[in-house]
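Example (one chain per record):
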Amino acid sequence: MVDIGGQDSKAVTLDDQGRVVEFAMNDKCAAGTGRFLEAMARALEVNITELGAVDEGAAGSVSLSSMCMVFAESEVVSLIADGAEVDEIVNGLHRAIATRTRGLVRRVALMLEDQQVAMSGGVARNPGVVRELGKVLGKDIQVPAEPDTVGALGAAPIARNRAAAA
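Predicted structure:
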């Protein structure tokens, strides 16, 4: 399971019963999160809800060298000034997020051959990130209908049980 929200990214390996086996979290900075995508959308003057589809058909000609939000924003502004197409820049952003997330996934699951991969969190609503993550992991990524509520739905029974036990 990959969960990318507004401010952090998580990778979780679950057993057959749905229990957590391994867990890794990127909490050092907002790179690759919803906040990162919001900042990049602003720099590109693209609505965040449309960002995920902007790179459809892009050739993949742009790569970003920095995932630090401040440096990436500066890099995006430079790419625009140099005449790079917005769809190519967005594709480079999506690919950079997917590549960074692949490193997080490898911390919890070195081999993915026999495993399914699902994605939750608000960033799972971005089809460009989901597509690029699928490419870098070599897997189809399953996304629930309401990916941004999955965490809350999972936490609700735990809270109910704890409240009942108190």
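Caption: The radius of gyration is 17 Å.
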